[in-house]
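[Automated response] Your request has been received and processed.

Submitted sequence:
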Amino acid sequence: MPLFTLATPMQHESVVKRSRFLAHAAPITSVEQAPAFLTTAREPDATHHCWAYRFGEAYRSSDDGEPAGTAGRPILAAIDGQQCDRVMVVVARWFGGIKLGAGGLVRAYNGAASECLRLASRLPLVARTRVTIACGFDHVASVHQWLARVGADKLGESYSDTGMDIAIELPLANLARLKTGLRDATRGQARCMEDPE
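Generated structure:
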């Protein structure tokens, strides 16, 4: 199942039994960005700021004073349910005077986060991999042509007496095509080595 991140930040407001819920969602490029987004999403007069993020296998959530399991986990469930990754959602709540109960809080926080993510503009996440290509000087032009064909980004290069190493990153789905293309274009002279994770 494809995963998505957000193209731009998004907000969505809902009201449940006079309590106001304002969801802020944004893409994050690292786990370290999460605290900064939480700070910018804070509403000065809100009663609670519950949040969750997912960045690959890393995730965290907070109920921020709401009963345990009624806010942060439902927000994380919304992120996962909308097939999102590299995303953080903060839901600010203003208490409206009517207690919602545990089930009501779960539904309200999950609903605010889900709708915010559903309405947001999304970008598909493409799995990428890093590879180093070793080739002789006489094959450099062929290698560069193949890098363009498979959507590779050059990360760096180093030289030796016999040729060069080119470090690249490319969509994982294009790796087999690159290996075959390089083998054919260089008669097996260029070597493609996958970098360890």
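Summary generated for your ticket: The CA atoms of residues 18 and 96 lie 4 Å apart. The radius of gyration is 23 Å.
If you did not submit this request, please reply to this message.
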